[in-house]
Fold this protein.
Amino acid sequence: MEDRAASVGEHAQPPQLRRRLGRADLRAVPEARRALRELLRHWGRPGRSDIAELLTSELVTNAIVHTDREAVLTASVGPDGLRVEVRDFVARLPRPRVPNADDCTNGRGLILVQSLADAWGVRAHGVGKAVWFELDAGAA
C-alpha cells in the first residue's frame, strides 16, 4: 500500500493518495476511508469530507465486490476540489440501477455517487475501467 503527500516548496504538488486495494479484501474499505480522512484533514470542508468518505467507500466496495481482481484508489486535492478514482481491471462498465425494494443492502452505491458528487463518471482504459467522482471546493 502506498500513500503520497505533497512536497513542501515552490513546486509542491497537490496532496495525493494512492492505495492498492487487495483482491476480495473488504478490509480495504475502512482502510481507504481512514487514508482519505487523513488526506482531507486540512481541506477545511468537514461536510464535504464526510461525503467524500461515503462516496469513496461506495467505489471501493464496488470494485472489490464486483470484480475478482485488485484495484487502485487515487485521490487528489487541488484548488478546485477533490477528485477520487478507483481503477479496476475488469472491462464490464457499471450502471446505476434502481435497487430492488426487497434487497436492503445492495444496488445503492452508484445512485449515491450520482446524487452527492458534483461530477462523476466511468472511463474505460486498456484493461478495465476507472470510476471517479469530484467534489468542488467551493460547494456547500
Summary: The radius of gyration is 15 Å. Residues 1-10 have pLDDT under 50 and may be disordered.
